[in-house]
Amino acid sequence: MKVVICPTAERATALTARVIEQALRARPDIALGLATGRTMEAVYGHLVKAHRDGGLDFSACRTFNLDEYVGIAPTSPRSYRTYMNTHLFSRVNVPLDATHVPDGMATDMQAQCAAYEKAMRDSGGLGLQLLGLGENGHIGFNEPLSSLTSRTRLVTLDPATRRQNVGMFDDDLEQVPHHAVTMGVGTIADARRTLMVVTGATKAGILARVIEGPVTAGISATILQMHPDCLVIVDEAAAANLSCRPYIEYLMQHDPELKALLS
Ligand code: GLP
């Protein structure tokens, strides 16, 4: 795992977008694993800018989103499908039929999950998986106790997650679904590269446990410690509780890969 601490959330999300841009330029037909949440809105804003001003070409890539709420139709303004169309897909030149988001209304959820896994395999596997971090340490919607080898499946949301995401539901907790469909921890771990971006003081406590604590199914993001190619980009506020910070800063100056990224 490599960690970069940026002075601001703006710099962290811009750098995250730059890593995705470099991956897409290096391999235009890459299969990208994508994420949702407030943090990602800025990341996608930077990618849209790179498309408009820098000619970043999405025409050959394929995308697979991490998750979707069960019971929310793709056309609903609250679906992650709508989120993705709004923040990225309708603003760059990715063909819509190359974008995949689980369907929260699928009648046979198990069949959908198996088909989603197959579609990722058929696309050659995820070249890069973008990740945010839930306040309970989840990636995707892999809530505490998710098996570290889990695959795409139906899950029951942690009440903490429902509260964290109430903003998308007019601040009405009753309206937040109780279930979701999510790529599994094992699915995410299979991506060739993983890229997590974490900003804000509310994530400082959980981020320290993700980076420095023991690997545990209680915090699904700790699987990233086992990943051979994981980059974590954070802002100052999120980095506040990291005890290995001096070494992280040393690596930012001396690790060849990080030096190249930050130059
Ligand atoms: C949701 C998503 C996660 C995301 C998390 C963080 O729970 N399922 O994939 O990482 O939100 O969201 P935010 O960036 O809004 O803190």
Tell me briefly what this model is.
The chain is of the alpha/beta class.
**CATH architecture annotation:** 3-Layer(aba) Sandwich
What is the 3D form? Answer: globular
From the alpha-carbon coordinates, what is the Rg to the nearest angstrom?
Answer: 17 Å
Count every beta strand, where a strand is a DSSP E run of 2 or more residues: 10
**Helical residue percent band:** 25-40%
CATH fold-level assignment: Rossmann fold
| Main beta sheet strand tally, sense and closure | 7 strands, parallel
Query: Spatial order of the strands in the main sheet?
Result: 1-10-9-6-2-3-5
Number of helices: 9
Report the uncertain regions: none
Structural class: alpha/beta
Number of domains: 1
Mean pLDDT: 98
- How much of the polypeptide forms β-strand, as a percent range? 15-25%
Question: According to CATH, what is the class?
Answer: Alpha Beta
Order of helices and strands: EHEHEEHEHEEHEHEHEHH
Beginning-to-end CA distance, first to last residue: 20 Å
**Ligand names:** 2-amino-2-deoxy-6-O-phosphono-alpha-D-glucopyranose
Write the SSE topology.
Blueprint: E1 2-6, H1 9-26, E2 31-34, H2 38-54, E3 62-65, E4 67-69, H3 80-87, E5 99-100, H4 109-122, E6 128-131, E7 153-156, H5 159-164, E8 179-182, H6 185-189, E9 194-198, H7 204-212, E10 230-235, H8 245-254, H9 256-262
Parallel strand pairs: 1-10, 2-3, 2-6, 3-5, 6-9, 9-10
Antiparallel strand pairs: 4-8, 7-8
The chain binds 2-amino-2-deoxy-6-O-phosphono-alpha-D-glucopyranose.
